[in-house]
Amino acid sequence: MTQLQLDKRLGGIVLLVAGVPAAAQKPPPASASAPASQVQPNQPDLNAPGDPTWMVIDTGIALVAGLVVGYLIGAWRSSAKQRASHA
After folding, report:
1. Is 63 within the bounds of a domain?
2. Per-residue model confidence as pLDDT tens digits over 33-71
């Protein structure tokens, strides 16, 4: 494989990993079937994708995935430079 093909493949994997948290979210509920007077505002809906708890979790997952991907890219580039210097 050429360097360009590896770069394209790695770029596709990075974009795929970055989009996984967004694709894993559930669609928002259609509409409330109960009147507003019956909704209990003190209890957060933990299944709602717009809930702040899930936003924090998604952000954390994205940050960890970014760190892992960044480390792998750095290690790959470093090993490529070492191979080139020894050739």
Report:
1. yes
2. 655 555 555 665 556 565 667 778 888 899 999 999 999
The SS3 assignment for 11 reads helix
pTM recorded for the entire structure: 0.40
Is residue 14 in some structural domain?
Answer: no
Q: Which domain holds residue 85?
A: 55-87
User: Which pair of tokens denotes residue 76?
Assistant: 């790959």
Number of domains present in the structure of the chain: 1
Within 8 A by CB and 6+ apart from 56, the residues are none
Q: Are 70 and 49 in contact (CB under 8 A)?
A: no
84 falls within a domain: yes
CA angle 16/60/6 to nearest 5° reads: 25
Cα separation, 45 vs 85, whole angstroms: 56
Q: Is 17 exposed, middle or buried (0-12, 13-18, 19+ CB in 10 A)?
A: middle
